[in-house]
Amino acid sequence: MDHQSEILNPTTGWILLAILSALWIFLGMYWGRKAKNMDGFMLAGRNVGLAFGTATAMATWVTSNTTMLAPQFALQLGIWGMIAYSTAAFGLFLFAPLAKRIKQLMPKGYTSGDFIRLRYGKKAWYLFLAISIFYGFTWLISMGMAGGILMNALAGIPYKMGMTIILLVCMIYTIFGGLYAVIGTDFIQSLIIMVGIVVVGVAVIWSIDLDHVYQNLTENKPMLISVLLPASIMAIFNNLLFGIGEVFHSNVWWSRAFAMRKGIGQKAFTMAGFFWIPIPIAAGFIALTSGSMGINITSPDMVGPLMAGHILGKVGSIIVFIVFFCSLASSIDSLLAATSDLIIEDIYKKMINRNAREGKLRMASIIVISGLTILAWIICLPRIGTLATVLFFAGPMVASTIYPIVMGLFWKSASATGAFWAMLLGSAIGLLAYFQLGWYTGSLVGAAVSIVVTTAFAKWNAENFDWKKMDESTLVNQDSLQENLIR
Amino acid sequence: MNFSNSFFEMIVIASLILMSIGVISLLVMLVKDIKTKELW
Asked: What CA–CA distance (Å, rounded) separates A306 from A293?
């Protein structure tokens, strides 16, 4: 990827990197002291309140892709591009009632894999785990790569150093504090991200007349303000479905639903959606002002940092560096924690060592988090692909999981065979569309195929599912009771 | 057919206002959760 020269001198960059790394590790370890058992480590004691719940949902959804790709969308797809990216907030809005239902059905659940296993059985569970772990790991790699690219572009820190440090910092505090550390740091990170973007946005409005920006777009790039730009309209639906699919299936969000106190999940996810929806618009409009300011953009994903540096000078560059670091850390720590939970709970505990006790599970978590970090680091080393490619490749697969999850949560008639074929065919045909028609159709096709297949099976091969089977804690208790009676 | 200038201005300003409200709300919720000992 070609980038314009860095906007911050390397010494300042290294100092900022050192301060932020030390701060997150200290806070993560401090909050992590509360994680005294696996419920604490994996789910922050299942008692997270509204403030931390809202902030963690919002901060995790703000990735470097939000702050880099939203301006790129605006530059390439115009006003629709900004709006298209902000539709990803519907993932949070629509997950809100699901969070309530999840807590109601599975008060002692651990992962999204638990849900698929209990609701649809083993065949669908294996496929879901493959999709979910692939997606989580792809997201982790894209964040690691983004970390290296950003540190290099913003402050001239070598790519390998920047990428290594951000992965290492997140690994350390996640290992020590689990979800307590992740949620605690997410709160501060969400405040920093929002304040940073508001400061830069207000500075841009202060220094340039929005009428002039609009006039400039009308004269030089009229397509960007066109209501009828076909690719942009397609991107809206694709992004909407991709966003919903990402949130609905991913253990990153399910673990938060399990972690929040009863009655908090729905409110927290709804508010997080409201606080997230303006971020791509605020970040995107900054990109649209670049033409009026006479800034030549050779690397569209770096337009935000360039504009901040141009308007606010060194202060702006420092703000952008901190915002990017926070947006990366808030996603990487969540991905490490949630993907490790999925591997520990669904693979290690359910397939390999069913009798593993707390100490062994905690040790296994440390090994898995370290292993995931090392694997991601190795793949990130050669600096492959662009952010958009890595991000959208998983789109069709996650979009194919939306309908089986929603139907499985609310309708007794959803069938296990239907869920399996919906995810398999949705992924396969969606990927075909991704390669044959374009990236902006993959999620759309994946979700559509999945809806048709799930609905068809529910109609012609309906099940009458017993919701009591979802609460594994009562099933385990019943099993123990029966065993005792037999004895 | 183009988006109007006023629509462009409106979504930009609304987004900045909504984010400011977000920051204030999070701080208010934090204080409330600390007071009621319901942080986590």
From this structure: 11
